[in-house]
Amino acid sequence: MFPVSIKGVLQSPEGLVVLMLNERDEWELPGGRIELGETAPQCLAREIAEELAVEVSVGEPLDSYLFEVIPGKHVFISTYRCQLLGGFVPIVSHEHKEIGLFAPGQLPVNLPVGYRLSITKALGL
């Protein structure tokens, strides 16, 4: 059995893609592990509120895949389209090093391919 992580493609009001820098110095989509009794959308809304201090509505699923986080350790990832509810004054939590805002055509090199594909699908690129 693999851990399950629910991630969201979210854009700032200016249309920039919101990414989080993790402890492996990789950019990733906001989100995290689903808890017992949660739906995937409930998990994602909670995780984004915890990680960024912003509220979102969770839209349709984009993709699901098995991701090798480090050699021999896999996580099942499900990605969803998200939309901001209210203001956007993100605050980075203790879970990440920083928040990044990137133009859709200028995503960072150290962004895993699965996240990149979900962004492409969400934004119709």
TrEMBL record:
Q: Which Pfam families match?
A: NUDIX
| GO MF term list | 8-oxo-7,8-dihydrodeoxyguanosine triphosphate pyrophosphatase activity; 8-oxo-7,8-dihydroguanosine triphosphate pyrophosphatase activity; 8-oxo-dGDP phosphatase activity; 8-oxo-GDP phosphatase activity; metal ion binding
> Cofactors per UniProt?
Mg(2+)
Q: What is its EC number?
A: 3.6.1.55
Among its keywords, does the record have DNA repair?
yes
InterPro entries attached to this UniProt entry: MutT-like, Nudix_hydrolase, NUDIX_hydrolase-like_dom_sf, NUDIX_hydrolase_dom
The entry's keywords = DNA damage, DNA repair, DNA replication, Hydrolase, Magnesium, Metal-binding, Mutator protein
Q: Where is the Nudix hydrolase domain?
A: 1-125
Q: CDD domains per the record?
A: NUDIX_MutT_Nudt1
BP-aspect Gene Ontology terms:
DNA repair; DNA replication
Give the reaction(s) catalysed: 8-oxo-dGTP + H2O = 8-oxo-dGMP + diphosphate + H(+); 8-oxo-GTP + H2O = 8-oxo-GMP + diphosphate + H(+)
Family according to the record: Belongs to the Nudix hydrolase family.
What is the name of this protein? Answer: 8-oxo-dGTP diphosphatase
The taxonomy runs: Bacteria, Pseudomonadati, Pseudomonadota, Gammaproteobacteria, Pseudomonadales
